[in-house]
Design brief:
This protein is an alpha/beta fold and 415 residues long. The protein has 2 domains: 88 residues, no CATH class; 245 residues, Aspartate Aminotransferase, domain 2 (3-Layer(aba) Sandwich). Helices cover 37% and strands 12% of the residues. The protein is built from 14 helices and 12 strands. The strands form 3 sheets. It has a 7-stranded mixed β-sheet, with helices on both faces. The protein has a 3-stranded antiparallel β-sheet with strand order 9-12-11. Helix 8 links the parallel strand 5 and strand 6. Helix 3 packs parallel to helix 11. The longest helix is centred in the last third of the chain and has 21 residues. The two termini are 22 Å apart. The structure holds pyridoxal-5'-phosphate. The site of pyridoxal-5'-phosphate has 14 residues, from helix 5. Pyridoxal-5'-phosphate (PLP) binds next to helix 5.
């Protein structure tokens, strides 16, 4: 089956009097724009199949159309920035069912609707800087995992903060090294982003890791923004711990972000949520009232219905598990493959074929398979080392048959 590509083509080149965002620093550049540039002159030899974008193609819940239809009059109203009280209650109730929270969230003060988690993750850095102490204003830092979701870096840039990728530990783990969080670094930091399960490497942060991160951040008045949008796509026996579970009863300094994009295979719905620190959330709500995209009421009603239903989430998770069973079979012993803890990406070591860019070009040219060079998802460290340069990200977002075809072509293309 051939799937239409959804990456944008490269934007027009800058002229001397109109600098292009393409020439801006890495924080402002989309990996997909870079990918479009890389592959723009290459014609694939076979029908195109994109495994580049993390856009779930699983069946969406069957009630979406009916709920939208029942709530059409809501399109005739500007939605309130904070979201419908009923959406915020549904989100708080879902979090209470899903996580062992120290206490229930207050939907009025501690929960907001988002137009997908991306815009919330982006805007949160701006608020973190605004709320930081005068001592942190001079040269504020935002710390990123590496690899990282591009919106974190863009948010840091918009906030006027320097974004600093955290190093990975020598152990080979793909979780940022907490040993790097020295008091001096934290004293200059306004926010730390973390994704668990992580995109792309699928690593799930253990409970004690999250607890230590929160303790370190709190001791230096740093906000922790925990990106949990892959929280329902886990492959082991236990669901991932959420950061609010270890944040104590006041949730101070911590905000969790989630979304229906991955959980409910509704990336185009644009419905997400964030929850946590009431002081932050109050200021965030006020800022968002003038600056953030609202979420249409009918969309929030779909969100309420989706959050109340687990059957479609379990079916979708089972399909991801079946696809990783396939990967276990087809990729065993190749490209450093190991089954991830969660998420829906393969993170393959393609150093044997010249690294991520060379592998992406080769796969596109020979097999029509579109993937993302790992280096596009990472930042180089101070020594110029990019931890993703030898890796390739492959999104397992299609049905089982398409995935089998794709993985067979991938093995052929890289061999
Ligand atoms: C790590 C991560 N965070 C956040 C998002 C944003 O998703 P959404 O805005 O659809 O909730 C994505 C989307 O691919 C992602 O991979």
């Amino acid at each position: 089956m051939s799937v239409a590509l959804s990456e944008t083509k490269a934007v027009p080149v800058a002229s001397p009097d109109r600098p292009s965002i393409v020439d801006a620093g890495p924080a402002a550049r989309s990996p997909f724009v870079r990918l479009a540039e890389l592959l723009s002159d290459i014609a694939p030899a076979k029908p195109a199949l994109s495994l580049a974008v993390g856009e779930p193609q699983h069946a969406m819940p069957d009630f979406v159309g009916a709920v939208l239809a029942a709530n059409l009059p809501g399109f005739g109203r500007y939605p309130a920035g904070k979201g419908l009280p009923s959406f915020r209650k549904a989100a708080a109730d879902w979090m209470a069912r899903r996580y062992a929270l120290p206490r229930p969230l207050d939907p009025e003060r501690e929960v907001l609707v988002l137009n997908g988690s991306r815009e919330g993750l982006f805007a949160a850095a701006i608020l973190a800087r605004r709320l930081a102490s005068p001592a942190k204003q001079k040269a504020p830092l935002v710390l990123l995992p590496n690899p990282f979701y591009a919106a974190y870096g863009a948010g840091a840039e918009a906030a006027g903060c320097e974004s600093v990728p955290l190093p990975l530990p020598a152990s080979g783990s793909w979780l940022p090294d907490l040993e790097a969080l020295t008091p001096a670094l934290l004293e200059a930091t306004v926010a730390i982003y973390l994704a668990s399960p992580a995109n792309p490497q699928g690593t799930i942060a253990p409970r004690d890791y999250l607890a230590r991160l929160v303790a370190l951040a709190r001791a230096h008045q740093v906000m922790v923004f925990s990106d949990e949008c892959y929280s329902e796509i886990w492959l082991g026996d236990e669901p991932p711990t959420g950061i609010l579970e270890v944040a104590g009863p006041d949730y101070a300094n911590v905000v969790a972000f989630n979304s229906l994009s991955k959980r409910s295979s509704l990336p185009g719905l644009r419905c997400g949520l964030c929850a946590g620190d009431a002081t932050f959330m109050e200021a965030f709500a006020e800022f968002r009232n003038v600056a953030a995209p609202q979420v249409p009421e009918p969309v929030q009603h779909v969100g309420i219905a989706a959050l109340a239903d687990e059957a479609h989430v379990i079916a979708s998770r089972d399909l991801y598990k079946a696809k990783f069973d396939l990967a276990d079979r087809l990729l065993a012993g190749r490209f450093g493959y190991s089954r991830p803890d969660g998420g829906f990406f393969l993170w393959l070591d393609v150093s044997a074929v010249g690294g991520g860019e060379a592998a992406a070009v080769r796969l596109w040219q020979r097999e029509g398979i579109r993937t993302v060079p790992g280096g596009y998802l990472c930042r180089s460290d101070a020594a110029g080392r990019n931890p993703g340069v030898n890796y390739l990200r492959v999104a397992l977002v299609h049905d089982l048959a398409t995935t089998e075809d794709a993985l067979t072509r991938l093995v052929a293309g890289l061999s």
